[in-house]
Amino acid sequence: MKPFSFPSPSARARRVLVGAFLFSPLFAGGLLAADQVQNPSSAERFIRPSSELVAREETYWKRTPIPIPDDIVLEASGILPLPGKRLLVTTRRGEVWWIDGAYDANPQPKFTLFASGLHEPLGIIAAPKGGYYVAQRQELTRLVDTDNDGRADIFETVYKFPVSGSYHEYAFGPVLAPNGNVRVALNVAFGGATQAPAPWRGWMVEITPDGQMTPVAAGLRSPCGFTVTSQGDWFFADNQGEWVGSGRITHVEPGDFAGHPASLAWSRLPGSTVKLRPEDIRDFEEPFPDVAKRMPGLKLPAVWLPHAVLGISNSGIVEDTTAGKFGPFAGQLFIADQGQSKINRIALEKIKGVWQGAVFPFREGFNCGIIRLTYGEDGVMFAGETARGWGAVGPAQQGLERLEWTGKVPFEIKEVRAQPDGFVLTFTEPVDPIAAAKPENYNISGFTYLYHRAYGSAPVNRVACPIRKVVVAPDGLSVRLAGACLREGYVHEIKATGLRAAKSGEPLLHATAYYTLNRFPDGNRIIPLEPNEAELCVAPVPAAATVATAKHPSRLPGTWTNADGDRTILLGTLPGMKFDTPLLTVAAGSNVRLVFRNSDDMLHNFVLCAPGRGEAVGAAALALGLEGPAKSYVPESADVLYHTALIQPEASDTIFFTAPTAPGDYEFICSFPGHAATMKGILRVEAR
Ligand SMILES: [Cu+2]
User: Which CATH architecture has domain 567-686?
Assistant: First the structure.
């Protein structure tokens, strides 16, 4: 964590954003007891997955936690399946374990130590020339067991990564390239004057077996997951943070710049293929696609993952190469999420040379935050888990789980394909044609994210896309939707809530997709362009959550004779989603100046609630979904008395309010999704 500092309120402090860092903000301890939730709502799903949905998902993909001996902290960070149903698993604690028996019906696996003493390895692959590559923070290492006793005896340094010592300088990978080299993705540092204090931070680099390094692409922030597909295309996942409006996956080609400018500090070094320079990037405060349109070299993400809706800290990516053994999604990508302990699914397509596609929810309810996904034998998926540092949904702090397809096919949107005037949705089984033909059973809206220095972005320029025509295919396996207001570069939320499977009558297992439309394809329109589309499709200017209001009283009231009020309270944040002072005391009816300062590395706010209503306000904030960021995650509710804006790391906000006249314990919370369970306190109002 950064040293404590107390910056004065600034313009930066007033920005409103939503965010999470690296594999991110967390849901640590964010579980409500079942009896505390009377009516399961969409809000609850962010805290504790809907047991009804998880039970439905479990019918199709069965989850099996792998028991871990009490004396091993697995924090599985890399998983290599090997012949004979063995696994070789790296841990964030620096060990590598053989695991035998992880495929058994009721696993009681045997753990055997292969190597130890490594520095936070976050992946492992077989080396073509023998042994195994692991990426430690400071180097790519080849581990070899020369005497075949099951224990590594050679630790060969293949290539050293420059590091400055920031806790945020993770090295992700390695991933084997089709040419026999390996690639590693280097996380940027956090805080400080530069986030790339050492060369090649924020880059993906390729390393030959004899240790020659070639920088491939720049602009990565926190690339916890990346992969090369069976077609040879590289994609990396990035986490929301400064310059990164929301989670996303980006296609990587040599010379690409994905958006985080810290890495450009090294773009002049020999070997760099990236032409952009630090001075090319300023704090644009414009939609990312607008900047990308005029800046060659700035790569559009292939798919955006809306923050707090489809994860908060995306991580491992794996292509379904099981040829149907894992279900009906062969060739698609699965992407894990650490904070929300779930897996999403991505179906890509390439239009006019540009990758784009849809992301869908897939499976939640895991025991812990997932950072790695790997396929073992027989189409079995393994998930490596850790909650340390950021917390995660679920009861465990670390783990390894197995996921298998049961052979049943769920009714799902299989993929979404762009059209010149809309989308085609395909399904895993025929849809009931009557329900599918009704435009009111669909809802489409578009939005994007800002490209700026600040941490995360609210969805911006959001407009509804009116649906003008629906055509159901004769075989019921697809539906074409045509509408207005679709925009290139924008994310399109597609809801298909009213559909039923023709045969079973089942609703869709997951009825929402988010399609990133980088390019319209050529082809025939089935509706004409709207003559007034320009007027129809202008987003209303949203009310800024930062302006002073009755409940966000950020201006000194004219009636106060003392600018400090009767009492000034300095309230700060602590790592692990906590306020630094859980109990504040004020006199009833007194004037309070509250200075909320955020020295943590994620976004927080302060929301003062009516007595006993903190949890309800937290749940209502979660239910805001895409609307949340623009409202600083403060719901409209009589239970909210006063609040600050959502505050960036190392910034602050000051509010001026008069304490309630009724004595009592008033709860205050941070209402950012998932924080309220631990980030709360009491404002005790005492009688004068
Ligand atoms: Cu918070």
Answer: Sandwich (2.60)
